[in-house]
Amino acid sequence: MLREEIRRFVRDDARERFLRYVQIHTTSDEKSSTKPTTSRQIDLLRMLESECRALGLEEVHRSDAGYVYANLPASNGVACDGFGLLAHVDTSPEQPGADVRPAVHGPYGGAPIRFADDSELALTEADSPELAHFHGDKIITASGKTLLGADDKAGVAEIMSALAAFRRFPELRHGPITACFTSDEEVGRGTQDLDLSRLPRYCYTMDGSVPGELEAECFDAWKATLEFRGVGVHPGFAKDKMLNAAVVAARFVAALPEAESPERTAGREGFYYVYAVRGGCERAEVELIVRDFEAERNRARLDHLARMKEDFEHRFPRLAISLETKQQYRNMRDILAQHPRVIELALGAIADTGLDPVQKSIRGGTDGSKLTELGHPTPNIFAGGMLFHSRKEWIAESSLALATETILHLARRWAEAE
Q1: Rounded to 10 degrees, what is the CA torsion of 167, 173, 175, 180?
Q2: Are 150 and 395 in contact (CB under 8 A)?
Q3: Which of the residues 41, 184, 325, 384 has the least number of beta carbons within 10 Å of its own beta carbon?
Q4: How far apart are the first and last CA of the chain?
Q5: CB atoms < 10 A from the CB of 345, how many?
Q6: What is the pLDDT of residues 106-158, one digit of tens each?
Q7: Which of 49, 90, 352, 393 is catalytic?
Q8: Rounded to the nearest 5 degrees, what angle is found at the Cα of 47, between the Cα atoms of 45 and 52?
């Protein structure tokens, strides 16, 4: 058990950092070709670089590509392997991320939580049943016009708070720890220019959701882009001449298997997710992602898209469709299964906080998905945020503290495992 003074420090420090970090606009941009994709992410990276230096961390480095690295040396008398901790600073472009105004509600008693900037918006236990476990706690949301940014500024705050606790309380035993803050995770480029030589062999992302959860399996992930090229002509003289690319694209989307959409699937079921449809008569574009835990089921979906393309080109002889597919990340399950120690130590650390550890699969991916593939086994530890990519996104104050405490226990377990 941690001393009460340490627990108070962690609770207050993690909350303060989180409320400060979420107010910095860091939305990434999939359409940008730069790295990072938006310069605004650098604002938070600069702040983290400065705070790491103020803590006396070693080899603090901020790269032009949008990463901050910092090393905490082992505490006195500890000689063991180190591990890395990662969190991403960018927030999802699916919701507005500028001018985030965090609001602290509570103690929560079960009534709907209202939002200052949208009187019609309310957060209820029907939206997020997990709220029922946080009666008496303080709940943090945004003001209703933006997402909150707990994905993943909660992880950023928790890592920074743990590093601050290690510095403030020398009795906390730990080996060497590398902190790494990444950019562009939300648009699939979180590890694009990551300097792997700066990371230890084993790492953890602090990017999960429900307190107590450890994720050691993720989706196999693909992106598909379809371009529809039609024939434009004045609509008054269009009979047997016009071929409206936008209309054909809409019919294509409508022909996708309805039962395999995100809103109709759960658990280990995969899906097609159409997240962008744009264009006009002569040209239209559809962007979608394909997800499943099993690679062969995703290959079947990609084959289905290819057959649909051929069918539509046969149905509309003057239509041209291009289909491009790209794998975004692989399921990290099989590689992590070869490194049980990295998982066992994390599950033990979660239990040390008093939580019941739960190992589960994430219906998504993290920087750790790609890192694991690149030779750095990296499971994902809970950070506490809920309803990611939503204006109803929220986190309980206690979750910030519990995730930070998990890091402290994790470091001790690594130090004792040698």
Answers
A1: -40
A2: yes
A3: 325
A4: 21
A5: 21
A6: 999 999 999 999 999 999 999 999 999 999 999 999 999 999 999 999 999 99
A7: 90
A8: 95
* The two structure tokens encoding residue 110: 């079960």
Question: Coil, strand or helix: which one is 247?
Answer: helix
Instruction: Count Cβ atoms below 10 Å from residue 254 Cβ, excluding itself.
Output: 9
Is the peptide bond between 107 and the residue preceding it cis, with omega within 30 degrees of 0? Answer: yes
Q: How far is CA 346 from CA 19, 122, 128, 152, 411, in A?
A: 26, 35, 26, 19, 9
Residue 137 known to be catalytic:
no
Query: What are the structural domains, with CATH classification, of the chain?
Result: 4-218+331-417 (3.40.630.10), 220-329 (3.30.70.360)
Choosing from 49, 151, 152, 185, the catalytic residue is 185
Q: Give the C-alpha separation, 360 to 268, whole Å.
A: 11
Q: Is 90 a catalytic residue?
A: yes
